[in-house]
Design goal:
The complex is a heterodimer of chains A (227) and B (121). Chain A is built from seven helices and ten strands. Chain A has 227 residues and is of the alpha/beta class. Chain B is globular, with a radius of gyration of 16 Å. Classes of the chains: A alpha/beta (227), B alpha/beta (121). The interface between A and B is medium-sized, with 21 and 20 residues.
Chain lengths: 227, 121
């Protein structure tokens, strides 16, 4: 595949390296001449100097035959414009933008960017898993379906402890798929399943009901870590 | 521009990252000036974008303008969105994508040309 990478700072550099290792044809575009020199020295002639938002630069880069363009600069608006120019002027089939501000995710989706990667959210998600007190952990986002898989640990003081699952009201579009605990085998919950303290529940839900699901299972208000 | 529109009786709200820029406003300016990021939904909401009839974005950054204009048009459905884009090539692209755009570079060049040709050089 021919892949163009816009921005060759730390993220861009390691991305180029990884893509080259996988055998792709890669061209990075970077505005800063010092960075261009440094990367050229190390990776060879896979980088050109220029503004990745400018159609003429992208034309020189042969964007018309690119299979993918990935914009990973520090500026969200630059990443947006690079992707839009690639898409609308050069018909690049797939555009990926790095988001520095997680708030921009919905905007970018709406404006036709195929995939967005939010570095801030990724870091938050990873830290979240390591926080022992955090009641709800994101395991996987099924973006195409607007769903996500989360893990909720049932605290000993939760109102659901010792109750049958069918007596518990869950928010819409939320399904409990698996209950894991220290004492028992992993089990697929039914209406007759009883939830115990410290059980871990794997659930499918929609992002907008995540807080309500957490509250239903733990009795606690959601932490606003992603706000 | 804010001063002119406010003087004509329109309700004008200015959004700028830096309150220092508000010093240029005339003493009798009747609109409001808010510090905030024009590419941030919350700042835009605070500035009252949901009730706006017209949204004009004229920061120094083309990409910033393009992003703010598209947020106004596609997220908040502002009836009229006008956007300054210095780079004529980018301006053409976003114009074809349905934004009302002005490239001062293009307009300026055109005016100079007319001056030169009008003076018979």
């Amino acid at each position: 595949m021919y892949i163009i990478v816009i921005g060759c700072g730390k993220v861009g550099y390691y991305l180029c390296k990884a893509l080259l290792n996988e055998g792709h044809e890669v061209l990075a575009i970077e505005r800063d001449s010092q960075k261009v020199e440094r990367v050229a020295e190390e990776l060879g002639s896979v980088i050109m100097r220029g503004d990745g938002c400018e159609a003429s630069t992208l034309d020189d880069a042969g964007t018309g035959r690119a299979d993918m363009l990935i914009a990973v600069t520090n500026e969200d608006e630059d990443n947006l414009v690079s992707c839009q120019v690639a898409k609308h002027k050069f018909n690049v089939p797939r555009t990926i933008a790095r988001l520095n501000n997680p708030k921009n995710e919905t905007i970018f989706k709406k404006l036709g960017i195929d995939v967005t990667v939010s570095s801030t959210n990724l870091i938050l998600d990873h830290i979240e898993v390591e926080l022992p007190s955090h009641p709800l952990v994101h395991l996987l986002a099924l973006k195409a379906y607007g769903l996500e898989i989360v893990e909720v640990k049932i605290p000993p003081d939760s109102p659901v402890v010792g109750r049958l699952l069918r007596e518990i009201t869950l928010p819409p579009d939320s399904i409990l798929t698996l209950v894991v605990s220290q004492e028992q085998e992993p089990r697929v919950p039914t209406g007759d399943t009883v939830l115990n303290a410290n059980d871990e529940v794997i659930a499918v839900t929609k992002p907008e009901f995540e807080g309500a699901l957490g509250k239903a299972l733990t009795g606690k208000e959601p932490l606003e870590i992603n706000a | 521009m804010a001063a002119i529109m406010a003087k004509e009786g329109h309700k004008v709200t200015i959004l700028d990252l830096d309150s220092y820029s508000f010093r240029r406003l005339p003493a009798n300016f009747e609109g409001s000036a808010i510090v905030g990021d024009g590419t941030d939904e919350d700042s835009l909401r605070r500035a009252g974008i949901e009730e706006a009839d017209v949204f004009v974005v004229v920061t120094q950054g083309d990409n910033r303008n393009v992003m703010a204009a598209q947020i106004a048009k596609h997220i908040f459905n502002v009836p009229r969105v006008l956007c300054r884009i210095y780079d004529p090539i980018r301006e053409e692209l976003y114009h074809s994508l349905g934004l009302e755009t002005i490239s001062p570079t293009k307009v300026g060049a055109q005016m100079f040309r007319e001056l030169i040709e009008g003076s018979g050089v």
